[in-house]
Amino acid sequence: MSAPQSTSASDLAAEKLLAATTAVGWVRDGMRVGLGTGSTAAPFITLLGQRVREGGLRIEATATSRASEELARQVGIPLLEPRRGLRFDLTVDGADELDAQLRLIKGGGGALLREKIIATASDYLLIVADSTKAVGQLGRFPLPLEVVPFALPWVIDAVANLGGAPVLRMNKQNPLEPAQSDQGNLLVDCHFQQISDPDSLAAQLIVIPGIVEHGLFLGLARAAVVAQGGQAQVWRPGQAPAPAEAFTALP
Ligand SMILES: O=C(CO)[C@H](O)[C@H](O)COP(=O)(O)O
């Protein structure tokens, strides 16, 4: 599935809404749900809140960012604080890129650390995505890293040695200041262009002192809903995409 060049902002918003609507239909009473971050996770949270308020759906949730937590509060989703033993039946989150094996690049919204924590504490990670996110090979989207501020210069050296062209992310509201994660760390976007061996790169990145987390999510996603135009497809690792309407429950 590839996005036509002419995909407009409103077409993309419609695809994100379709993916989110599909995922919301698979949430069941009693589930503990991880709430993702970004412009595809946001409509999922809003629609989930609607089911809680108007449909009597009983769920509890934990959000992967302050922004998603604030939205969840606004729409009436009961929230759980982190605690020992807490696991999630389902986490629904977006992605910046996904390939046919459901390997992901995440962190475009700067929430990669909490996103990976919640994904790892989940029995089922479901990705919701518009058609521009599906790629043959990861790496066109710059790979985000969350970095301890003190370590920044050495992390930049190390990533450059791996061929990643690192760029410190700046604050969109104040471009003279670096962007900060919810944890107060820095974000470095690494332009690899092509990541031919994501497992090897992930292993090399995670041992660099000062990198708290990287945005490669490998072996975590169980399925993805990828919307293109008015069609939503279910992607699962190593399986042919299938129309989402064929599934009345989690695929
Ligand atoms: O990883 C993320 C945030 O850290 C998002 O899931 C990713 O950036 C996709 O966002 P969107 O749905 O807005 O395109």
From TrEMBL:
Family: Belongs to the ribose 5-phosphate isomerase family.
Catalytic EC class: isomerase
Residues the entry annotates as binding substrate: 37-40, 93-96, 106-109, 133
EC number: 5.3.1.6
Identification of the protein by name: Ribose-5-phosphate isomerase A
Catalytic reaction annotation: aldehydo-D-ribose 5-phosphate = D-ribulose 5-phosphate
Assembly description: Homodimer.
Alphabetic keyword roster: Isomerase
Organism: Hymenobacter glaciei
Pathway entry: Carbohydrate degradation; pentose phosphate pathway; D-ribose 5-phosphate from D-ribulose 5-phosphate (non-oxidative stage): step 1/1
Entry's Gene Ontology molecular function annotations: isomerase activity
Active-site residues, record numbering mapped to chain: 115 (proton acceptor)
Pfam family, one: Rib_5-P_isom_A
Function: Catalyzes the reversible conversion of ribose-5-phosphate to ribulose 5-phosphate.
